[in-house]
Amino acid sequence: MTYLILTLGLLGLFVGGDLLVRGASGAALRLGLSPIVIGLTIVGFGTSTPELLVSLNAALGGQPGIAIGNVIGSNIANSLLILGLAAVLATVTAAFATIRRDLMWMLGATLALPLVFWSGQVGPVEGIALVAALLVFLVVNLRSTQKADAAVPQGPSLRISLAFAAGGLVAVMAGAHYLVQSATIIARDFGVSEAMIGLSIVAVGTSLPELATTVVAILRGQRDIALGNVIGSNIFNILGILGLTALITPIPLDSRFLQIDTPFLVALTLAIIAVLFLAERLGRMAGLVMLGAYAAYLAMTAGF
Fold it and tell me: How far is residue 205's CA from residue 222's CA, in Å, rounded to a whole number?
């Protein structure tokens, strides 16, 4: 029964996240936002809703390992699993000059992790700083964006788009609740730490909306949305999810996050930025390397 609940929770996250993204994207197009901004904000943040709800649920339920592991694990999954799969399906290209600012925001958010983790607890002070940084990011992005091209299909009406988004949010909330509960039971049955279950099963499960959105965007030739989705999700996971969770309840830190997973995420972020700077593309070979690196990371961390 626990495994059935876990499956239903993942399904709720996946279906709900898809509806939420479709609704939010439709509303954004109706309001005339450009594809890259849709990817960075509406889609990127929308697909991170499962991570937000799971981390809040876990922190309030006394499961800090899942709360923080979900954030870091989701960013690693976004960067290696999702972006790697996208590159295997079709070369991801981007002019570095057009995404430089957003990549620097992603790097800055990632580099902030060792600072907020240093005291051994992520509390209200750190939460305020992270959320404030997120608000600055949103203001800067929305003020500098240009209106979407008039040739972009407008899709469903604003009312229908908002209805899809609301229905998706309800499904995501239910899925998040059952996912955390069932994953915790399974972890304890097998003697797996909460940190590891948060970094793996929960992180991948809550990243399913990003995965679905990125794959669909790549197949439809909307590569701006695909890349923006990953960058925006990574920014929101750290600044928004970790920040909001810490504002609601202090989160004690498992030492492994500061010693192992955060340094890995920092190195990974720097590597992706370097590749995009030098080549302005992620091809099939790079994608295969990224998928292999993700498998190696999971195998390596399973021993800690």
Answer: 24
Question: For residue 210, is it left (φ>0), alpha (ψ between -120 and 50) or beta?
Answer: alpha
- Residue 48 tokens read as 């991170």
Closest CA to 281 of 294, 272, 290, 269: 272
Please report which residue ranges of 77-222 form alpha helices under DSSP H.
Answer: 83-89, 96-117, 124-144, 158-190, 194-197, 203-206, 208-219
* Distance from the first to the final alpha carbon of the chain: 29
Residue 166, C-beta contacts closer than 8 angstroms, at least 6 positions apart: 23
Provide the residue-wise pLDDT of the chain in tens; the chain has 304 residues: 888 888 888 788 778 777 877 787 777 777 776 666 666 677 667 777 777 888 888 888 888 888 888 899 889 999 999 899 989 988 888 888 888 998 999 999 999 999 999 988 899 999 999 999 999 998 887 776 554 444 445 567 888 888 887 888 788 778 877 877 787 788 778 787 777 777 777 777 777 777 777 777 777 776 766 788 788 889 999 999 899 889 888 888 888 889 889 999 999 999 999 999 999 888 899 999 999 999 998 888 766 5
Distances (CA, A) of 108 to 48, 93, 94, 132, 281: 19, 22, 20, 13, 22
d(CA 232, CA 14): 18
The whole-angstrom separation of Cα 81 and Cα 287 is 9
Which 8-state DSSP code applies to residue 146?
Answer: P
- For the CA atoms of 170, 174, 175, 181, the dihedral, rounded to the nearest 10 degrees, stands at 160
